Records
---
Amino acid sequence: MTVSRAEYCVVACAEAWRGDGEILASPMGLIPSLGARLARHTFSPDLLLTDGEALLVGPDGTVEGWLPYRRHLAMVTGGRRHVMMGASQLDRHGNQNISCIGDWERPARQLLGVRGAPVNTLNNPVSYWVPRHSPRVFVERVDMVCGVGHDRAAAVGARFHRIPRVVSDLGVFDFATPDRTMRLASLHPGVTVDEVRSATGFRLVIGGSVPYTRDPTEAELRLIREVLDPEGAREREVRTA
Amino acid sequence: MSDKTMTPEGVVARLRSGMTIGIGGWGARRKPMALVRALLRSEITDLTVISYGGPDVGLLAAAGRIRRLVAAFVTLDSVPLEPHYRAARERAAFELTELDEAMFMWGLHAAANRLPFLPVRAGPGSDVMRVNPGLRTVTSPYEDGETFAAAPALRMDAALVHLNRADRLGNGSYLGPDPYFDDLFCEAADTAYVSCERLVGTAELTEHAPPQCLLVGRHTVTGVVETPNGAHFTSCAPDHGRDDAFLRMYATTPWEQFAERFLSGDEHAYQAAVRAWHKEREQQR
């Protein structure tokens, strides 16, 4: 069976929540949402999910809890949450920007704003999802640090800082290096190391032999295709090369 | 007990240029849009606006009424980036105090509790500290010795919020899933104005809804305004959803053109113009 790039991305995102236990999975964006629900359906059945508003819901939509914004923020600071955010820019230390491009005083492009990235990164695990891996996203220096990276977290003594992984349309990345800089952890099948290198605006740590992102099981593929995303919206967010 | 009902114009008559105004709701959800529209019809300007920003910020920014914005984001939800806010920021049309969402919330709590600040584990390490050089940190006096951001109280001259139901005394209830932070906005302000979908008798507030839906208490409310569909085009569940078609038109129409068609008359004229726009659109399909 042919597995699409988008489906590898869903599996790679799902893996972020493996072993997380009874915590809230907060996915931002389509592919991370499919990943969180895939994890909930399979290897991380204790995860909590929201309906995108103020309710905690089971896989069939059964309401099991109430989580308005003020309680959501308490969940963040209590640490019982693992969010996967987007990133308009990301540097090798994991500093993330979603606020603006260019000079903050008068930005070339105003984006969303810092949102909850500062509180997230200082309190609960934060992973990132980048649907188009390019040197414009993976930059030497981000223009406005919203999510706090490893270098800055260390400088302020952040006790609960953790960035488990970054998933892009090309591969999976982590910070399992002596100086906590970004490392290529796995390539999605069909992608080469050179492709990743040239699409990254900083010097990425790349080991001698990089594994491929794991294949979905048949049961997982069936879930993705028949239950979680029967319309195939995932293929519009990430196209197979 | 006093009847606090007034018109949108009556609310705006109590506001002045240069004031700090808090606006409740979140993004494109339960925004007091009828009151914002009334504000746009006035000459009031030079405002400091405190908001979990949505089209309230976009409209006021496009009309040049904001001197300083205090926000963690501005979004239209179904259109992620607010185009009028973006345009205003990209021409540096006003000052921005960009805070993290949690710092913002603790700032509201601090103001509601008459505290100068509250400590929050957010900010250090991020550029929120760089772009807000006035922000201070505070170190735990206990053994842990951790350093926190001291989120400053977000005290305001007036708060504007929109609820589902209210009585004439200023008690208000929300019937949707999320209270947002509207009660805190009212408690953090010297005066607070509540617009509502429907004005009801006090007894009716708890006739069909549990008492915990009573979000805003009359002791924190200065005026009450009945504005059916007053959150349009943001959502006000369960009374009405977000008007995504209108929202997309708002996001893609030049400001002058939008303002001329929809904002030149009073609230009744606005609601009529919206109905006419939808009718036209249906006929074109």
---
Amino acid sequence: MSMNTQGRPTAAGDAGETFRPKTFTGNRGLDMEEPLIFEVGSLENCGVDLDEGDLPEFELGGHARRAEIGLPGLAEPEAMRHYVRLSRNNYAIDAGLYPLGSCTMKHNPRLNEKMARLPGFADVHPLQPVSSVPGAIELIDELAHWLMVSTGTHAVAMSPKAGAHGELCGMMAIKAAHTAAGRTPEIVLVPESAHGTNPATAALLGYKVVSIDAKDDGTVDLEALKTTIAEHTGNIAGIMLTNPNTCGLFERDIKEIADRIHEAGGFFYCDGANFNAIVGKARPGDLGVDAMHINLHKTFSTPHGGGGPGSGPVVLSDKLAPYAPLPFIRKTDDGLELVETEAATKDGEQPFGRMTAFQGQMGMYVRALSYMMSHGSDGLRQASEDAVLNANYVRVGLQDLMSLPFGERPCMHEVLFDDSFLKDTGVTTLDFAKAMIDEGYHPMTMYFPLVVHGAMLIEPTESESRASLDLFVATMRDLVMSAKRGETQRFSGAPYLAPRRRLDETGAARKPVLKWTEPEPAQVTPEAAE
Amino acid sequence: MRYLPLTDTDRGDMLARIGVNSIDDLFTDIPEDVRFNGLLDLPKRASEMEVERKLSSMATKNTSAGSVPFFVGAGAYKHHVPATVDHLIQRSEFLTSYTPYQPEITQGTLQYLFEFQTQVAKLTAMDVANASMYDGSTGTGEAVLMAHRVTKKNKAVLSGGLHPQYREVVEGLSNMAGDQVVSLPADPMGTEDILSQIDDETSCVVVQSPSFYGQLIDLKPIAEKAHQHKALLIAVFTEVVSLGLIEPPGTQGADIVVGEGQSIGNGLNYGGPYVGLFATRQKYVRQMPGRLCGETVDAEGKRGFVLTLSTREQHIRRDKATSNICTNSGLCCLAFTIHMSLLGQKGLTQLARINHGNAVKLKQQLGAVSGVDVLNSAYFNEFTLRLPKAADGVVEALAEKGILAGLPVSRLEPGKKDLENLLVVASTEVNTDEDRAAFADALKEVLA
């Protein structure tokens, strides 16, 4: 095992409490203090040259805006500087390891960006004549094919705009299928370890959410599931299960879970947020899944862009396929047809409605297909294997010092620790995370999943090299030892070396300030005026 | 594989360190009988050049908006986006970052979200705005659910001027959630009687202005009647540039304002990703869906920003959350914010004036074509024509002549005799005198 530490300090120094000169600008070297645009722009300024020319008489029918908008403008160089400076206050996957468990921060290939910007994709209107966009329809159909083959399913609803929107779509298809069969079951089962979006989605559709406990090994308690099903016989719409689950574990009893829920007349919704762990290793269709959303941004690396946009196509079993929402693409003898309205549907097509205007996240489809084609069937499997390998490598590197809530069993693409290793050190989970920032890392996911106290969920992804993992493991080990040695100051005041020290989140919530307002002019006292 | 840094030697060494013999020993939790062995029936890995070749060949089959005289609107608009915008949003630090869960190292994202919220609040003349929704249509669905939470009533009244696909999104979501939706028939002229639909059961009235047909609607009497019955007015717009010139919904009594922000900073992208704008009154802020960024201070007293009021959200409230949404259109609202910062109110007003002026010129030219009627009296950059024959055939014929002429209403409202001849036409700053002349001449020929 080798680790490149050239040019790096091999021992932790004193963390930032050295002399810091107070500067006039507030900047610290290249670390810039950037005001808001409203504080630098002016109402007369503008960074776009627009020529009004000869305008005809307006026909606004008395609807003209009277009051000023109050938005300052910036000349182009000022705007460039403002946003470049802001960008430098951000951590990003291109800057370093971003082990946010369950969020899957992997490399974003720039080829995907280049492809998405081809005018034939980026500059076509969703409602221009269908005859003028055959390539766009072909692309959507091609991506749908890749998704169906890799999941072993029969249909895919492409239009959902994000993972949670895909969940909603899948559950709406389930509700539509029940309604079509004349059933009105009221209950959706959701395991404790589920993403918060799962119960929120079920509740949004008027379902009563019944929680299913987890066993001591972090997976669904099959006996508890059977008991709950028995208690609510005939009233179960379905189950929402995440697999691999949020503890980073594959649900071993998944086939049995699917069978039980099907016997009870319900459908099996799988939260596919963690699909990246099993592409080419298991197909959800073979596991008995009826509906599963795929976060294209996670598994197929469309950029997260500060939290969005996402894209959440939903693969569907043959039982749910007829209920897929509008629009969809139909294969005919002459080629591909875009079906946009209920009037255009045929026998056997019973769309439950529409998830969004237009066709969904085309820009994300291009990126995802570009990524999938780049990997191919062999590369997609390799990516999943490497993601799992890297997570287990981190697990083995840290398991003697940090605490694993479910024992030393292999994990999938992410490894879950809890904070019991910090017991009696005086260092909290949050402190530990903030100290990671001073080491140049984005902290892992914290407090989630809720089933584990002080959860720390680490997902290195397949993008990390062995050297990168070695350095991360060594850093984590150093932090743990430091906490155990009682060096609490390194943690309690952290981060010391970030653009901001710890922020007052309680204060922000107590008196929410959600927009900039012009400060009151300073009161000038008569004495000062003289 | 160019995206995977591990070598086979690394893999072997790492497996040994973990203490297993093969990679499959790490997948033993997947039961044998459902484990997938072999390769998926898909092509193998392709080089960068091969991918470019394949995708470019698909892209070139499409007619891009910028390559022809282009007049399609109806919820998405072809505008010029300054080069600076696309350059800045491709900076790694923006493009490849995630939800700002660690505010100390995500001030870049948080500060632009705060700027975005401020811009949207000012444009709409509302108290508060969130950090964006998926798009305008889903935002409208969320607004109706929010009105239900606020008023504890469940009957939504949708104007006949609402974009038909927005209407379908709202109907689908609300019906599934157990709410009642009253959708008025299509209203191209903007003359519907929505006031008589409002009663004590009504939770909200949803009105789009400019309407799907381009008509500007006076929201004040609708707000007044809604408020008399303790219902909310949800004002919808699909063309945010209109707010540079027309009276904002906030000063007309709207309680929730939802809109599509694609026009500013974002391309057409064949329908997405777009950026939903969502604003409301201060008193409803805790019922608002979506993400919110708030101002605060750090341990040294410096101003900073954090995600806030998260006690409304799914990760804390689970089945009691205001919405299941756990994301926003981060990068798209960055594009919006940069473009809007370049424009400022001066540029936005100019842009809106040019858009409207071009629409007036186009209306004059098309209205002069024999047999063509223009339905709108007051409009922004979009209006509706009644043609002497079915609009879908006319649009196809014009497309063959190299002009993308607008949306035949029948495409979204099929089988309605009275709408068959209607064509919704949009004009923006990208249209030239030559484009307009070409459109008018071609229309003359097709109708002759």
